[in-house]
Specification:
540 residues, mainly alpha, Serine Threonine Protein Phosphatase 5, Tetratricopeptide repeat, 26 helices, 60% helix, globular, disordered N terminus, PPR_rpt, Pentatricopeptide repeat-containing protein, PPR_P_subfamily
Amino acid sequence: MAIRLLQPHTLFSSSASSSWFPRTLCFFSSSSSSFDDCPPGRENNVTIDTNDDSDGKLPKMEPSNDADLLSQVLIHHHNPFHATESSLQLHGISLTPSLLHQTLLRLHHNSKIAFSLFQYSLSLPPSTIVTSTAYNLIIDILSKVRQFDVVWQLIIHMDQRNVQPTFLTFSILIRRLIAAGLTRQAVRAFDDMGSFIPEALDETHFCFLLDTLCKYGCVKVAVEIFNQRKCGFRPNVRMYTILIYGWCKVGRIDMAERFLREMGERGIEPNIVTYNVLLNGICRRAKLQPEGRLERVITLAENVFDEMRCRGIEPDVTSFSIVLHVYSRAHMPQLTLDKLNLMKERGICPTVATYTSVIKCLCSCGRIGDAEELLGEMVRNGVSPSAATYNCFFKEYKGRKNADSALKLYRKMREGDLCPPSVHTYNILLGMFMKLNRMEIVEEIWDDLKASSLGPYLDSYTTLIHGLCEKQKWKEACQLFVEMIERGLLPRKVTFETLYRGLIQSDMLRTWRRLKKKLDEESITFGSEFQNYHLKPYRR
């Protein structure tokens, strides 16, 4: 693929984009409602698979030199303050569906550039370049930064171009709406889905809605929807398991047990997943202090084991791993190892999550030698460690200020000898080396993160900016602050305040004003959220 840079033509000119697209992306303003009462949450370790994959999934990133080159050219030559303009002209490029998909995947943390590329691709012949997969990818990218108004226009545009929206299209939108706390809009999107997708809504689709609500802590909304619509969607074991999971996630074990009893009253038999979800709720969210609570949690867990066996359901590796994790949380390394050995004696092969839980306990208790020995056993048994496994070591190295061991392990991961680092890995290391004032290593890790497909995202920028502020490196902190804004990431209010106060105390009010001016130029991108970020005058 030949790519030439020609000045001063524009690749993303307004004529190249469809007329109905807005030139500036604006956030969908959230309205208060009875449904919008739950904060965004994170998924628990025990999850319920509600997708039958009949509509497929988003493609994964694959090696592609052309996509790497195209994405880097777009990133480095895009003007962030003119959303659909660039001083770049691509000549001699054959944009195929596959190349478009892989490039969008590489631009998933640059929503403005990704959307500009998508707009440009709509103007290219043949029209088959932009497939439903391309629409799904850009919908995922825009939903992640809450551009829900544009997403709805894209879905309508799909229908107008005879590109069939699928369940995957709406599952992306619904999940992102719920993650943003917009549950009413998510339920409305679920209802509207029937007018767009070819198949009729059934229990699988309904389970997805309930599951997503519960995963983000909106179990009350999920129960309300379940009660309203259980006449249209016949209740089954999966639905009840999802609701039990939701109650466990918010710490209401009493309600989880109530729904378990209701299952039996309806003649619906719980399965191993149902009991593991309940077991997970009892063990993982329980407080283990003061003394005596650990024994109470273990007793409750054993009662669940007994009930399982009474129903003819044998505990599996997940069941044992959940209980083992309780000992790990209680910092009881020997009991954790004993439970692991008991699993092996019963012929139950530990999983990566099981090993990681034990390694985490050993590392947090300072037994890093035993943790390394268990890591070796894990590999010998054919269980590949995950980034979460190695993060246990990084956290211990951080606590010990053992920079050499952390750097050695990180470089092994980066060079491909081990699994690649996760975003959390990068954040741990950035915080560690920032505190140790190893700025050359911080720069190396930051460059690696930017070159990867993982980000950087809000947490990474926040970690670095706050670290730079602590060291009074105002120039570098301001540069990163602007870079965040250019990427469409709204900094947290505490970051605004930290930078603002630091600049004022350092007699750099003029610098803050220039920074604020740039932020105001992009304020429309952040919509109503930005209104809460106006700062009160600070007096030294």
